[in-house]
Design a protein that fits this description.
It is a single chain. The protein has about 210 residues and is of the alpha/beta class. It has a domain of about 110 residues: Vaccinia Virus protein VP39 (Rossmann fold, 3-Layer(aba) Sandwich). About 35% of the residues lie in helices and about 20% in strands. It has six helices and nine strands. The longest helix is centred in the first third of the chain and has 21 residues. The relative contact order is 0.16. The mean pLDDT is about 95. Bound molecules: S-adenosylmethionine.
């Protein structure tokens, strides 16, 4: 999703909106340094586990009815996707129950970190994806906040639900450029939502 190189993977990374994903757990096992932020970290591992089990059939059903919006090359069916996701969530839950210092209960648009605490901030499947629910101002403020706490911010995908380009993308990029941020849109290898194979990289030009 983020074209992370071996050098990037050694950096101090913030994962924003990481939810019940296993990136933190897996990179930590390879001696990486990841801090994850998500409002769901106010809940215990048991509470998150119950919620995952409860919502699993609904998420599967939604994916089944929107099957045509996805590329089924690496994962071949909705059932296989379910197994892959559940395995990742179990890895998250095992790690989360023993390592609370790497999982911070906080939420955009305000983060509890000093300026440039991280080299790279990553946000996957949150910003832009929920453009219908989250306003343009929320997006702009959130991206600036990620750039405040990290030297570089990467956001993936640039689509909103329905596999359409986010309604906020062009306006946000124009405004950020006017305010002195460097923005670039780069192709990545990963594509699961059809057309969702681009990330936005943002940094403050002179920092
Ligand atoms: C669809 S999940 C994506 C999880 C993970 N990044 C991935 O790609 O699989 C979106 C996540 O954003 C989190 N979220 C919701 N509001 C947020 C906010 N204001 N700031 C940060 N994360 C938020 C949700 O709790 C959820 O875990």
């Amino acid at each position: 999703m983020f074209s992370l190189t071996e050098t990037d993977l050694r950096a101090k990374i913030l994962g924003c909106g990481d939810g019940p994903a296993s990136f933190n757990s897996e990179l930590t096992r390879q001696d990486g340094h990841v801090t994850s932020v998500d409002p769901i970290y106010r809940f215990s591992a048991e509470e998150i586990g119950v919620r995952i089990d409860k919502t699993y059939p609904m998420v599967m059903e939604q994916t089944r009815s929107n099957k045509d919006e996805f590329v089924w090359n690496n994962i071949h069916s909705v059932e296989e996707l379910g197994q892959v996701r559940m395995a990742a969530m179990r890895r998250f839950l095992d790690d989360y129950s023993t390592a609370n210092d790497r999982y911070i209960n906080a939420e955009l648009p305000i983060l509890p970190f000093e300026e440039k605490s991280f080299e790279i901030a990553l946000s996957s499947h949150f910003l832009f994806l929920y453009s219908e629910l989250l306003s343009y101002d929320f997006h702009l403020q959130s991206i600036k906040e990620l750039c405040r706490v990290a030297k570089e911010t990467r956001i993936f995908p640039l689509l909103e639900l329905g596999a359409k380009k986010s309604r906020h993308l062009d306006r946000a990029v124009n405004e950020l450029k006017k305010s002195g941020y460097q923005c670039s849109i780069e192709k990545v290898d990963y594509e699961f939502q059809k057309g969702g194979n681009e990330m936005l990289i943002v940094k403050l030009s002179n920092k």
